[in-house]
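pls design
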């Protein structure tokens, strides 16, 4: 599905992609920049969501690849969890496409609120996992049925919408799988990336993707990720996270009253 995007709107989407890439490196959940931007430009919610998801695939893949060392010796467990994440991503992606577009439009404000709240509490969850790691002997347990079902559920959310999916995954993995924060974070990136990739394949096959939006967000987020890796230490994560929450809640409020 192709939508006419002029030079001004294209520039805005590209800049939003850059900002999202920077924020993904420093604070995470850059989707809360790109998705509301697309909505504000009049892009239909489903087209905005699927195009944004596909556009961020390169960032998902590189983010997962970057933690390969932390997952040495654990790839069998991560692979098992990735199967559940992939199934969830497929279910979420299919639900997005088969349910009426009005259903997604109706729940989008609440999804934005949820993602904003998750972004706000992300530091507390990370601190909790780190504290557990510091006070407990480093331990990585076998994958349980409860953990698998939790990963499956987050995969469904990731395939359907996805913003701040990593916050829930980090909590699940830190509590139920590994007290090593770096290992849990690495697995989080892999599982979120898997859900993102499989749902993107579904979206591409359905023909609902706007490839100009994908290109602008993909190139912009890649550039933003490169910049974020170099200037990230100079940018206060709490400030960026506050921006994310404000943008998400503002977009939700606007959608609720219109």
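designed seq:
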């Amino acid at each position: 599905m192709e939508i006419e995007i002029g030079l001004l709107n294209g520039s805005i989407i590209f800049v939003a992609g850059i900002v999202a890439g920077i924020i993904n490196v420093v604070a995470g959940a850059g989707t809360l920049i790109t998705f509301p931007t697309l909505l504000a430009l009049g892009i239909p919610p489903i087209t905005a969501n699927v195009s944004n998801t596909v556009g961020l695939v390169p960032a998902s893949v590189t983010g997962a690849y970057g933690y390969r060392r932390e997952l040495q010796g654990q790839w069998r467990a991560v692979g098992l969890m990735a199967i559940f994440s992939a199934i969830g991503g497929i279910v979420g992606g299919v639900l997005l496409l088969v349910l009426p577009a009005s259903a997604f439009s109706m729940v989008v404000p609440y999804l934005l609120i949820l993602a904003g709240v998750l972004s706000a509490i992300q530091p507390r969850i990370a601190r909790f996992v780190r504290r557990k790691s510091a006070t407990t002997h480093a331990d990585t347990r076998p994958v349980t049925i409860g953990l698998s079902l939790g990963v499956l559920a987050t995969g469904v959310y990731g395939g359907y919408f996805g913003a701040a999916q990593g916050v829930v995954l980090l909590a699940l993995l830190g509590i139920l799988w590994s007290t090593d924060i770096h290992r849990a974070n690495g697995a989080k990136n892999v599982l979120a990336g898997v859900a993102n990739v499989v749902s993107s394949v579904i979206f591409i096959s359905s023909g609902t993707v706007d490839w100009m939006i994908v290109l602008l967000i993909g190139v912009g987020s890649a550039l933003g990720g490169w910049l974020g890796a170099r200037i990230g230490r100079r940018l206060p994560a709490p400030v960026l996270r506050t921006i994310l929450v404000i943008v998400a809640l503002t977009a939700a409020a606007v959608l609720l009253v219109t």
